[in-house]
Each structure stands twice: as structure tokens, then as C-alpha cells.
Amino acid sequence: MNTDATQRSRNKELNTKTQDTKTQRRKEKLSDTSDTSDKDPTDSSAKELTGGTMHVKPIIAIDGPAGSGKSTAAKNLANAFGLRYLDTGAMYRAVTWKAMQDGITLADEDALAELAGRIDIKLEPDGETTRVVVDGVEITQEIRREDVTREVHHIARSPRVREKVVALQKKLGEGGGVVAEGRDIGTVVFPNAELKIFLVADTETRAARRHKELLERGEKADYSKVLDDIRTRDRRDSEREASPLRQAEDAVVVDTSGNSIEDTLAELAGLVRKRFPQLSVREKAQGG
Ligand code: CDP
């Protein structure tokens, strides 16, 4: 099994490389499969590389604040390396949506815990995205609504809700082969993840991304309001007692400020290739 010290020293090396070769890596193309082309991701050498007793197919944990680029990066990375994408935020959003739908008082933790224990949340792969289904109703779009985003903190701060949601996430990660993104993936959900990435970006960049996203979805959005919301969510995510957003000690920090989506993907794909040389890039992703 990986010791903490081994993991930390690996990450130190990766972190240093990340800084040193950032510009160079931005130029890297996904099609650079020079050392990966003919290797089987499930071959036994994968075990050695991940410490011998961990997942043959790795778990990659991506954490970070709102707008740091987690969802896009995790989706792209999963697609590029043929891994499953696990959007843990969608689960907290799904519980929030259902609570609002059922008229549950969001401050009532007993009612929220009861709800989280009884609802059936399914994340179904749908091409390159994920369909979110709650008690048989598809709510993929609904959970992204601003009113849900505004209220999700009630659900995310409840330890009893988190316990239920995290149990489901752990189950979905069984067997590995997953890129999971959220706030507590590297610290709580998958503390043994073979690669942990903590994405950061300055607040203005994150607000600008979120603002653009809302406009593209046809929603009305005022930049300064979005900026305020991001600051509020940062504070709530970092200050709550239950599983606050925090960087795992053994996470590789990647700053995505000023990065295009392609830059971030190239940088993260570089980290994945380095740590798991036997994972090959899928044909589809190579084409761009
Ligand atoms: O995409 P965005 O960063 O806006 O949010 P999300 O990943 O969909 O997550 C929605 C909310 O769920 C976040 O504001 C967090 O408060 C919470 N969350 C969490 O507490 N733990 C996670 N592992 C994922 C999300």
C-alpha cells in the first residue's frame, strides 16, 4: 500500500514539475501517447504503480472551489482515458431539488436526513455527460438552476445527509476506474485515491466563467452578483464543519487561472500519464 510519505514525495515531484513545465505542458497535445500506446490499463504493472494493493483501475480525485474548472476537467479527463465520471455535486443538488420540490424546510436536518436516506439518485452516463435521475424523474437541467445553487449549502452542511450521500459515492467508486469531482473527494470520499488534484483559480476568473456559463444557458446574469455568489459559496464551503473544502495533503495543486479548457486538460492529462503510464488515451479524445 502507498505510504503517506511516498505519496507526498511523488506529489512534491509532480507539483514542482507542474510549475516548471507549465508553459511547455500547455503545448502538449492529448495525442501524445508516446509511452502509453500499447499497454493494457488493467495489466498487473498498474498494481505496482499504485502501491500494490490499491485499485488496478485508478481513482482520480479532483477537488476545488466553484468555477475552478473541476466539472469540465473531470469530464474531459474521464473521456480521454476511458474512465467513469462521477459528479458528486450533482448528488447534493439532487437532494436539494427534491427537498424544494417536496416543500421540506431546508433548516430541518431531521427531514433532510430522512429524505437523503429514502430517495433514489441515479447518475447515468449519457454520451460525454451524466443524466441525473431522482426517483425515476430526470432532473439533469433542473439541478443547475440558480435557486437550487443558492440553497444547496443547507444540504451540503448536514453531516447526516453527507453520510448518506458519501456512502453512495463510495459505492459508485468501488472497483476504481473513476474520475470523481467535488469538495471532499481526496479528503473524505476517496482518501486512498491514486491521484488527487486540487484545482484553484482566482475569484474573478471563476466568476467570469460562471457568468459566461449562465448567459450561455440563456439565464439572466449580472457579473457582480455572480462574483458575490461565488464569494459566499467559497466561504460556506470552506467554513462549514462537515467535510469543508480543503486541499488533501497529498494533492497536486493546479492553478487554472488564465488557462483555456484545452490548457487544463493537457496539464491534467500530463499528470495522469506520468502517474499511470499504462492508461492509454482513447482514440476519440486524440482526435480532439
Ligand atoms: O459546479 P459547482 O462548483 O457550482 O457546484 P457543484 O460541484 O455542482 O456542487 C454543488 C454544491 O454541493 C457545492 O456548492 C458544495 O457546497 C456541495 N458539494 C459538497 O459539499 N461536496 C461535494 N463533494 C460536492 C459538492
CATH fold naming: Rossmann fold
**What is the rounded distance between the termini?**
36 Å
Helix-strand pattern, N to C?
A: HHHEHEHHEEEHHEHEHHEHH
Overall 3D geometry? globular
Give the CATH level 1 class: Alpha Beta
Number of domains: 1
Main β-sheet description: 5 strands, parallel
Helix content estimate: 40-55%
Ligands, ions, cofactors: cytidine-5'-diphosphate
- What's the number of helices? 13
Mean pLDDT: 84
How do you describe this structure in short?
With 288 residues, this protein is of the alpha/beta class. It has helices at 4-20, 22-26, 45-49, 70-81, 88-101, 109-118, 146-156, 159-173, 185-189, 203-216, 223-239, 261-275, 283-286; strands at 59-63, 84-87, 121-126, 129-134, 137-138, 178-182, 195-200, 252-255.
Provide structural commentary.
With 288 residues, the protein is of the alpha/beta class. It has a single domain (59-275), classed as P-loop containing nucleotide triphosphate hydrolases (Rossmann fold). 50% of the residues lie in helices and 13% in strands. The chain contains 13 helices and 8 strands. It has a 5-stranded parallel beta sheet with strand order 2-6-1-7-8, sandwiched between helices. It has a 3-stranded antiparallel beta sheet with strand order 3-4-5. Helix 6 runs parallel beside helix 8 and helix 10 packs across helix 11. Residues 66, 71, 88-89, 92-93, 152-153, 156, 182-185, 233, 237 line the site of cytidine-5'-diphosphate.
Topology:
Layout: H1 4-20, H2 22-26, H3 45-49, E1 59-63, H4 70-81, E2 84-87, H5 88-101, H6 109-118, E3 121-126, E4 129-134, E5 137-138, H7 146-156, H8 159-173, E6 178-182, H9 185-189, E7 195-200, H10 203-216, H11 223-239, E8 252-255, H12 261-275, H13 283-286
Parallel strand pairs: 1-6, 1-7, 2-6, 7-8
Antiparallel strand pairs: 3-4, 4-5
Helix pairs in contact: 4-12, 5-7, 6-8, 10-11
